[in-house]
Every structure is written in C-alpha cells, then in structure tokens.
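Hi L.,

You mentioned the student needs an example of a multi-chain input paired with its predicted structure. This one should do, with 330 residues in total across all chains.
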Amino acid sequence: MVLNSIDKLLEKYENGETSLKEEQQLKNYFSQETVAPHLEMYKPMFAYFSVNKQEQFTKDLPLKTKKVFNYKWIAVAAVAVLTLGYYFKTPVISSYEEYTYGTYNNPEDALSEVTKSLAMISGHFNKGVSTVNYLDEVKKGTVTLDYLNEIEKGTSIIFKK
Amino acid sequence: MTQTEFLNIVMPFKDKVFRLAKRLLVSTEEAEDATQEVLMKLWNNKAKIEEYKNVEAFSMTMTKNFCFDKLKSKQAQNLKIVHNNYEDGNTSLQKQIELNDSVNWVARIIEELPEQQKLIIQLRDIEEYDLDEIAKMLDMNNTAVRVTLSRARKTIREKLTNTHNYGIK
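Structure written out for the whole complex:
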C-alpha cells in the first residue's frame, strides 16, 4: 500500500469524511505487523476497535410468555354450571310429583284413603285440643283481675296528664 | 410472535446493544443488565415490533436513552472499571504486552471523552454504522455527527501521540 494514500486517508479520517470502505482500508493497513514509524501511534487505536467489536453478550434472556388469566372465563364457567344444574334438576322434580300424586287409578280407592287419613288427622287434633282445656281456667283468672283497671283509672286522675 | 422469531430479529444486533451499553456504563455487569432490560422491553412490546421501520436503530436509540437514565440515577454511582484481556494470537508475547498496554490506553482515552463523542466513536468506528444511520439513532443532524466524530478522533489521536512519545521526546 502506498504510504502517501494512507496519510491522506488518515487526514480525511480525522475530519470524519472517510467512507466506511476507506475506513476498512485503514483498519486493514494497521492490522499489519509493521506500519510506518510515524504512524505507529494509530496502531493501538485500530487494534482496539477491531478487538472491541468481538465482544459478545452472553447473558441469558429470560423470555417469558406471560399468560394473563382472563377473568371473563370465570363468568362463562359460572353460567355453564348454572344452566347445567338447572337442566339436570327439573326432571327430578317432575318425577317426584308423579310419585306423590296420582298414584291411585281408582277414584273410590282414593276417596277412602283420603277420608281415612283425614279421620286420623282430626282424631289426633282433638286429642291435642283436650289437653289444652286448662287454658279456660286461666281465662277465668284474668277476668277477676279486671279490678286492676280501676286502679289505673285512679292513678290517671292523680297524675293528670 | 414466537420466541424464535423474536430471537431471529434480535440476534444480529444484541452484541451491538451490549457494546454500546458497555461503552457508556463501563462495567460489564451493568452493561449486561442494561442489554437485558432493553431486550426485555422489546419483547414485551413485541406486538408493535412490526410497526418499527428499523428495529436495530430503534433498539440502539433505546439503549442510549436507557444508559443515560442509568447514569443519571444513583445506581450508577458504584460503577466498576473493568478492563478486558485483549488477545491476539498473531503477535509475539513482547509485542502483545506492549500492544495490550497501548490498547488499554485507547480504552482509557475513549472513557474520558464526553458521552456524545463516546457514543459516536462506538457507533462509527466499532460498529461501523453509516453516518445517516447514526444521525437517526441519536436524533442529530448529519453534519453535527460528522463534527463530533472528527473532534473525538482528533482528541484520541492527540492523546495517543502524547502517550506514545512520552519519555522519548
């Protein structure tokens, strides 16, 4: 390489006017073992540039795919559970109704069954009522306590509202 | 966008991001953290990545801003100064030691430059970006980039000449 052209290139380089290609030329020249003695001081500079270019980033990148939980799905699930629950529940009720009502096909049988059970209810009811008869005695007692009202009248006169 | 697609986009320039961060933050650990942060930001905004015309230039701008923020914050006050071991298999040991020393000088000189000049030297002389690209990344005008670059190169040359001639002249 002609030394003269290197000198020129260096001057251009210092003015920031060199193209990337010309800079590559300079770098190539200064990567040689021997350079012109008056240009010796440029050598470490270009050596530094090329060495520095090889430094690499070696740290791991923790790339996480964030999964944001979508709370809308909770509502969807709730609606699904409700509809399913309702769907499965209704037939149970209807079969229960069938079980409790309309089991007698013959109306006479039904009538006798109903009168029987009603008679049983009224029998038990009367038994219950008879044990409560003593309440009449209480009523009598309260009637005799009516004179208390008289006292109240007297006090109201005293205190004159 | 899947992880592999994202990595394919990011792989070519992740080292550049790292080196730029290291140029500004000096310490390797800090630079690694910064790079990670910048790439994570890109990943989190991966939906928008297609909208960017030039993801690389965008990331470099992001890195620059992120590093400036870091430098302003208090965290940056416990910076470590770490120098790498420069290796070169071609030169003899004597030469290598000598070169190592002067290469370290270059590192130190660049470290002393103002931030803007550091950035431009990094982007131009190490990463070899076009002047227009640099102008876009730094939101500067083309001539301003050229002037800053020229100033930085002259400073480096002057200081290098001084150290080179130290004790000789």
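You could point out the following to them. Chain B touches chain A through 48 residues (CB under 8 Å). The helical segments of chain B are 3-25, 28-44, 55-72, 93-112, 115-126, 131-138, 142-165.

Best wishes,
N.
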